[in-house]
Amino acid sequence: MLTVHHLGKSQSERIVWLCEELGIPYELKLYARDPVTRLGPPEYKALHPLGTAPIITDGNVVLAESAAIMEYIMAKYGNGGLIPAATDPAFADYLYWFHFANGSLQPNLGRSMILSRLDLPADNPMLNWVSARRDLVMGLVEKRLGEKDYLAGDAFTAADIVTVFSLTTMRLFLPMDLSPYPNILAYLQRIGARDAYRRALKKSDPDLTPMLT
């Protein structure tokens, strides 16, 4: 049985959502963050040497890293769903945006989160560089969503699933005003209307109001 080990308010919401979109059977195990450190509890850290979310188990397989987990689940259980065919003109865009999520968007937001906790002066060169990169990356997403309803094109794909956490739940850790990004806000409303997204959030983090505005 495929088991999703979900650490509360973490990137593992992507995996719950993916399973709901694909309509595949899975077991969901929930883990609460330590109230002081905000990290995973010992039983979660025992699952994988890094102890980071998400983690799945599937028989003897133990797998971490959200993009790797998503590719594994789609290849083994997805029956071609949520991925354009290689002959589809949207395929290259799908690959780009799927990897952009963890290759560009999430790292830039993560650096901003860390620096925001260091009480650096406003003229700190590293702070300014990271802020400029974050604005560039967010601007690229905004531009794309002004051109297409979804990141890979006209159809919803796994590229959207892997991206949305950074624009929503991540803001619990890095508050970010999305009002300068009307296309992103409109996109999040489309996402929030999806039954599978609502089911996933209700199962994984029932006390969390989806951060779609």
UniProtKB/TrEMBL annotation:
<feature type="domain" description="GST C-terminal">
    <location>
        <begin position="87"/>
        <end position="211"/>
    </location>
</feature>
<dbReference type="Pfam" id="PF13409">
    <property type="entry name" value="GST_N_2"/>
</dbReference>
<dbReference type="InterPro" id="IPR010987">
    <property type="entry name" value="Glutathione-S-Trfase_C-like"/>
</dbReference>
<dbReference type="InterPro" id="IPR040079">
    <property type="entry name" value="Glutathione_S-Trfase"/>
</dbReference>
<dbReference type="InterPro" id="IPR036249">
    <property type="entry name" value="Thioredoxin-like_sf"/>
</dbReference>
<dbReference type="InterPro" id="IPR036282">
    <property type="entry name" value="Glutathione-S-Trfase_C_sf"/>
</dbReference>
<feature type="domain" description="GST N-terminal">
    <location>
        <begin position="1"/>
        <end position="81"/>
    </location>
</feature>
<keyword id="KW-0808">Transferase</keyword>
<dbReference type="GO" id="GO:0005737">
    <property type="term" value="C:cytoplasm"/>
</dbReference>
<dbReference type="Pfam" id="PF00043">
    <property type="entry name" value="GST_C"/>
</dbReference>
<dbReference type="GO" id="GO:0004364">
    <property type="term" value="F:glutathione transferase activity"/>
</dbReference>
<protein>
    <recommendedName>
        <fullName>glutathione transferase</fullName>
        <ecNumber>2.5.1.18</ecNumber>
    </recommendedName>
</protein>
<dbReference type="GO" id="GO:0004601">
    <property type="term" value="F:peroxidase activity"/>
</dbReference>
<dbReference type="InterPro" id="IPR004045">
    <property type="entry name" value="Glutathione_S-Trfase_N"/>
</dbReference>
<dbReference type="InterPro" id="IPR004046">
    <property type="entry name" value="GST_C"/>
</dbReference>
